């Protein structure tokens, strides 16, 4: 614990990290507000029925386009100034979110809401990829592991806090269009603040070293597919990043089924199905428990994973996730639901921290943007696959002991297979170009 706090103090002494971290916190708090607004609308409103098929379709519609946006994001993150991406991306979200709020107030839910939501969430994933690709430019060496623990985890906490603010705001309004748009207006304000905070960083601080403009940039569209293929071949040739991304996609697939089941259980089992407000509150409790697991991950991963190594740590987290599924398969109560959420949150975030570190550490800076774009593609494609499985395998109540037992088996198999592959991989895969070193403490 003491070493973690010491590392945190060292990180916060880095001006570049501190400013990038602030942009992340504010931006992701706006994400939380936005997502609560969508969750209320799609899953916990009086007009949604909350069946397994409807929830799965909603997730598929929201996430499937990210597999198309992701490859383009990687190419541009390796050629555009990442600081400018954070600035203009957040300003774009301000405009889109404001339009969604106006449409909801004037016309209610319609096809345009889905289109605008898809665009906004696509920009969000682009920004998160930019934040991850930029982090090694402001942190280097052993502190990178702590940065990967602190930044994404506290970003998730900030998103949870923003979601809580959006939920509390909704309680002050009667059900209707004003309530649905309240969280979106607050999200637009947060995105605007994040854009302003991005301007405190130098344009070139976050890289990349080579900037492409004008006609040359337009020509990149024709080379996107080739660039993505080159990135995938590079990551697999490096072995450790490719293996880490594969196991994370597997983890995300199983996690996605559990997440969809949690929505259905919260609405149809833990609360009266006719009381959508109680269902939303129940799901909020489950998310809070998962957030507690994230907090444990930020404390335990930097302390314990250096002793085990990131590969063994990932295998341990997969086994812990299997335990959470066994618990739910045995019995479903409020206690087992919350404990399972804590364990799964710890496992998901602990594994993600280690995967982020492996990908950042073992990927050349020229490919790092594409690496995290591929990360996003696999991340969201796995959740789309999970939505399809959930629609077929889960009952409308969301609870199936057989499904949870099957998910536990998948986790155990993934842990064993990844552990064996990682054990055969040389510890040193060769040097990489990490980009400009981080600035020393002020």
TrEMBL record:
Q: Where are the transmembrane segments?
A: 56-78, 143-169, 181-198, 244-266, 278-300, 371-393, 399-418
User: Where is the protein found, in the record's own terms?
Assistant: Cell membrane
Residue stretches making up the Major facilitator superfamily (MFS) profile domain: 244-442
Question: What residue range is the signal peptide?
Answer: none
Q: Which domain of life is it from?
A: Bacteria
Q: Name one GO cellular component term.
A: plasma membrane
Know the name of this protein? Major Facilitator Superfamily protein
Native source organism of the sequence: Paraoerskovia marina
Which lineage? Bacteria, Bacillati, Actinomycetota, Actinomycetes, Micrococcales
């Amino acid at each position: 614990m003491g070493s973690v706090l010491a590392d945190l103090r060292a990180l916060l002494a880095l001006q570049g990290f501190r400013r990038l971290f602030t942009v992340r916190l504010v931006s992701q708090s706006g994400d939380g507000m936005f997502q609560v607004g969508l969750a209320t609308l799609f899953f916990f409103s009086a007009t949604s029925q909350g069946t397994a098929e409807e929830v799965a379709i909603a997730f598929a519609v929201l996430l499937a386009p990210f597999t198309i946006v992701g490859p383009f994001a990687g190419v541009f993150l390796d050629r555009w100034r990442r600081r400018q991406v954070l600035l203009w991306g957040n300003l774009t979200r301000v405009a889109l979110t404001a339009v969604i709020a106006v449409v909801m107030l004037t016309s209610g839910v319609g096809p345009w809401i889905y289109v605008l939501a898809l665009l906004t969430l696509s920009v969000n994933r682009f920004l998160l990829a930019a934040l991850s690709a930029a982090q090694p430019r402001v942190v280097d060496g052993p502190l990178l592991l702590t940065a990967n623990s602190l930044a994404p985890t506290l970003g998730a906490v900030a998103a949870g806090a923003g979601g809580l603010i959006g939920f509390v705001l909704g309680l002050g309004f009667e059900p209707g269009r004003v309530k649905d748009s309240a969280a979106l207006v607050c999200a637009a304000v947060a995105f605007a603040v994040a854009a302003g905070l991005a301007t405190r960083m130098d344009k070139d601080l976050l890289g990349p070293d080579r900037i492409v403009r004008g006609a040359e940039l337009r020509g990149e569209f024709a080379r996107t597919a080739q660039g993505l293929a080159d990135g995938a071949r590079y990551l697999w040739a490096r072995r450790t990043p490719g293996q880490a991304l594969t196991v994370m996609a597997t983890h995300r697939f199983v996690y996605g089924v559990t997440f969809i089941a949690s929505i259905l259980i919260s609405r149809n089992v833990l609360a009266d199905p006719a009381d959508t407000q109680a269902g939303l509150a129940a799901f909020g409790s489950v998310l809070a428990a998962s957030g507690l697991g994230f907090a444990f991950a930020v404390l335990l991963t930097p302390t314990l994973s250096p002793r085990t190594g990131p590969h063994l740590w990932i295998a341990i987290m997969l086994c812990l996730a299997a335990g959470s599924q066994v618990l739910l398969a045995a019995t479903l109560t409020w206690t087992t639901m919350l404990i399972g959420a804590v364990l799964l949150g710890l496992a998901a975030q602990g594994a993600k921290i280690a995967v982020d570190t492996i990908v950042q550490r073992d990927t050349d800076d020229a490919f790092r943007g594409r690496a995290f774009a591929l990360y996003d593609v696999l991340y969201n494609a796995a959740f789309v696959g999970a939505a399809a499985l959930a629609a077929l395998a889960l009952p409308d109540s969301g609870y199936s002991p057989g499904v949870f037992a099957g998910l536990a088996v998948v986790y155990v198999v993934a842990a064993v297979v990844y552990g064996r592959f990682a054990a055969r991989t040389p510890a040193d895969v060769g040097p990489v170009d990490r980009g400009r070193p981080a600035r020393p403490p002020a």
